[in-house]
Amino acid sequence: DGYSHLSAYERKRLKNITENAKFFAALKLHESAARLNQIATKRQSHVTKRRKPKKVEDETARRRSMRLLRVEPLDIPLLETPAQLGPDPYPQVPVGPLPMVPEDQAENRKWTEALLSTWMRISELKADDADRGTPDIKRYQESLSSMVLSEENIRKVVKARVCSMAIHPSESTILVAAGDKWGHVGLWNVSCRSEEGAHIFIPHSFQVNCMHFSPCNPAHLLSLSNDTLRCGDVTRAVFDEICRSEENFSSFDFLEENASTAIVGHWDGGVAVVDRRTPGMSSELSADIGFRRTRTVHVHPVNKQYFLAAGSVDVCVFDVRYLKAKGNKPLSSLPGHTKSVASAYFSPVTGSRVVTVCADDKLRIFNSKTIQVLLIFKKQSNKIKTHENSQPKPGWAIWDPKQEHCFLVGSMAQPRQIQVFQDTGKLLHSFCNVDCLGSVCSINVVHPSQNILVGGNSSGRLHVF
């Protein structure tokens, strides 16, 4: 065979190789491989590389949503020139006095005149000072139980969230003022019981942080916005401008019974003294009290030279007679607050108590004479509701002006309610109505002599018990 020189193993191996070669040759795999190689080579010749786009200096703008660009849909022909924007729904209010003309003056002129004439008439009547003593707790609790809420005493008075309220001291007519976050002031004659009993005025450009009827002349309604303090004088039908500043006002209170001077708090922590009798629109004094933020200021009901300021974690008592531009030291501090303080108020008759609301969900009662913490209690139902803006104003706890030892606070408990507490921490009463009250009333005001409570919510609606 020509392979005789090979060993038996080598011959066996060579035979296997020869048989395997014949087997693969019968399969004709080399022809298939050649054909596939030909096809691949043919396709490869037609493959062309994608040409890189030339770099353009002025690239076209990236496509953006027409909704975000505030562009009309394509089926509406677009103007070649940019369309002129319509009038601002909340225009800036001019500086200086403003006429007391409501938003709907043209439509309801006679109803507006009726509202303002009612305000003027009830302001001329002097309130009866008889029986102004603080009632005992039992009688007071009975009076609370007699107060109810009905559908006719619920009304949307302003367009947006209620930031402040005031109630006229009249004993014959219920007149309520509410300020919202757009600078609107709504006046509602609750006793009118008609759709035309409420009207909206626009004396401010920013949210109305604080409002008070003048204690000596309720024909004057003072309202404080971020940039200005105004006095609505119904006898002259004008909103006068008392003070203007760029320091962002937060709250104010009267330093005298004649309401000629006021202490004003600033969001950036300072305070200012304003005198209505002096010309110009600047404050008499601007003082740094060492606060990062001042949310509320409140004057002592008896000793008017003392005022209470509440801010970030600070609650301090100052003497207005010794205020200066810098280096002010408090007479006393109310300690223990670990988070932001929403409000702090003296009790209404003697000022011997102070109630504070803190973002740690705690209500604190202090003895203002000894600066001693009398009570700290925490209830989940009193958890503070913080509004969505850069300068949050949580719910306030306010004293009932008719009762030295009781205060009210809006609650987030279900059903929604406004709770009345004694300064011992005892819950005396809960104002609620499953059918009529379904929202949190974080801003509340109580009539100084009548059994009337008004709660305002985040939609501009007022509820009168």
Automatic annotation (TrEMBL):
<comment type="subunit">
    <text>Interacts with CUL4A and/or CUL4B.</text>
</comment>
<dbReference type="GO" id="GO:0003677">
    <property type="term" value="F:DNA binding"/>
</dbReference>
<comment type="similarity">
    <text>Belongs to the WD repeat DDB2/WDR76 family.</text>
</comment>
<dbReference type="InterPro" id="IPR015943">
    <property type="entry name" value="WD40/YVTN_repeat-like_dom_sf"/>
</dbReference>
<feature type="region of interest" description="Disordered">
    <location>
        <begin position="41"/>
        <end position="62"/>
    </location>
</feature>
<dbReference type="InterPro" id="IPR050853">
    <property type="entry name" value="WD_repeat_DNA-damage-binding"/>
</dbReference>
<dbReference type="InterPro" id="IPR036322">
    <property type="entry name" value="WD40_repeat_dom_sf"/>
</dbReference>
<keyword id="KW-0853">WD repeat</keyword>
<feature type="compositionally biased region" description="Basic residues">
    <location>
        <begin position="43"/>
        <end position="54"/>
    </location>
</feature>
<comment type="function">
    <text>Specifically binds 5-hydroxymethylcytosine (5hmC), suggesting that it acts as a specific reader of 5hmC.</text>
</comment>
<dbReference type="InterPro" id="IPR001680">
    <property type="entry name" value="WD40_rpt"/>
</dbReference>
<keyword id="KW-0677">Repeat</keyword>
<dbReference type="GO" id="GO:0005634">
    <property type="term" value="C:nucleus"/>
</dbReference>
<dbReference type="GO" id="GO:2000001">
    <property type="term" value="P:regulation of DNA damage checkpoint"/>
</dbReference>
<dbReference type="Pfam" id="PF00400">
    <property type="entry name" value="WD40"/>
</dbReference>
<protein>
    <recommendedName>
        <fullName>WD repeat-containing protein 76</fullName>
    </recommendedName>
</protein>
